[in-house]
Write a structure and sequence with these properties.
The protein is α/β, with parallel strands linked by helices. It folds into 2 domains: about 5-15 and about 125-220, D-Maltodextrin-Binding Protein, domain 2 (3-Layer(aba) Sandwich); about 40-125 and about 225-275, D-Maltodextrin-Binding Protein, domain 2. About 35% of the residues lie in helices and about 20% in strands. The protein contains 11 helices and 11 strands. Strands 1-10-6-9-7-8 form a 6-stranded mixed beta sheet. Strands 3-2-4-11-5 form a 5-stranded mixed beta sheet. Helix 5 (about 160-170) links the parallel strand 7 and strand 8. Helix 1 (about 15-20) packs parallel to helix 11 (about 265-275) and helix 10 (about 255-260) crosses helix 11. The chain is globular.
């Protein structure tokens, strides 16, 4: 765990975040789809849930990494994908019930693995964005002060140590849940929360002068966490999930996934995130 000096922000924050990810000396490698691999079944419209989250998707612009990936999946498969903007927690519920086929940028855990399959295409680390006036300098300092509160997005999970941090504070009734990032930033600036968890997709908001002046970033001691296409086990057969995984692997193998990330991040960070 280490505090990243605020004087380095915002110009080099993306570089610092990239340095925390695995070094990427070669283009992303993935298994090239075999000629005999199953093709996605396009016999019905398929549903895909988007959630508003920094560079992943913005409803104001209608753009983001997840939207670009969804468009490419539709183009390659020839399937009709119906995109719906929903809170992340609701998306997970629909994936579990089989009422939604896909979502994007998801991470797995023991519970989610019972109802969802994944096709991995990037990894990233998580960080604690903490107010300077807390008096805390480490994660342990924050945990030790019962007056300090953490804000998280409902249903979000992270790396092992970040999950433990959240769960222990939640058990002590020190966690507030929100449906999105915007409200968390506001209550943090209003001093109703003292910290929140962030990732590289939140970088544009961290350029705000108000946030830079009032906060410090602390890194969780976790390796990068894999994220991918979320596929409902109830909605899609194992053969169809394999077909979509092959499609995603192809996007990694031919460099398409890295090029999508390069629209939003510096090339070295995009390469590091899509190489694992």
């Amino acid at each position: 765990m280490r505090s990243l000096a605020r004087r380095l922000l915002p110009a080099t924050l993306a570089t610092l975040l990239g340095a925390a990810l695995p070094a990427a000396a070669a283009p992303a490698s993935a298994t090239t789809p075999a000629a005999h691999a199953p093709r996605p079944d396009c016999s019905r419209p398929l549903s895909l849930g988007l959630h508003e989250h920094g560079l992943l998707y913005s409803s104001q612009t209608g753009e983001g990494i997840d939207k670009d990936i969804a468009d490419e999946l539709a183009r390659r498969s020839g399937c009709r994908l119906t995109l719906t903007l929903l809170p992340r927690a609701r998306i997970w519920q629909l994936i579990e019930s089989g009422a939604m086929d896909f979502s994007l940028s998801g991470i797995s855990n023991e519970s989610r693995a019972t109802f969802a399959d994944f096709a991995w295409y990037f990894s990233n680390k998580y960080y604690l964005l903490m107010r300077n006036d807390t008096g805390a300098r480490t994660l342990a300092d924050f945990e030790a002060d019962p007056a300090l509160r953490l804000g998280v997005i409902r249903s979000f999970r992270y790396g092992p140590s970040a999950n433990r941090f959240v769960d222990e504070l939640d058990a002590a009734h020190r966690v507030d849940h929100a449906t999105g990032l915007a409200s968390l930033y506001q209550v943090l600036l209003d001093k109703r929360l003292q910290a929140m968890i962030i990732e590289p997709f939140d970088y544009p908001t961290l350029q705000s002068a108000a946030i830079r002046a009032q906060t410090t970033i602390i890194e969780f001691d976790d390796p990068p966490v894999r994220h991918g296409l979320i596929m409902s086990k109830k909605a899609l057969t194992a053969r169809q999930r394999a077909a979509w995984r092959t499609l995603v692997d192809g996007m990694r193998a031919d460099g398409t996934m890295q090029r999508i990330f390069e629209k939003y991040f510096k090339p070295e960070l995009a390469q590091a995130m899509t190489t694992f």
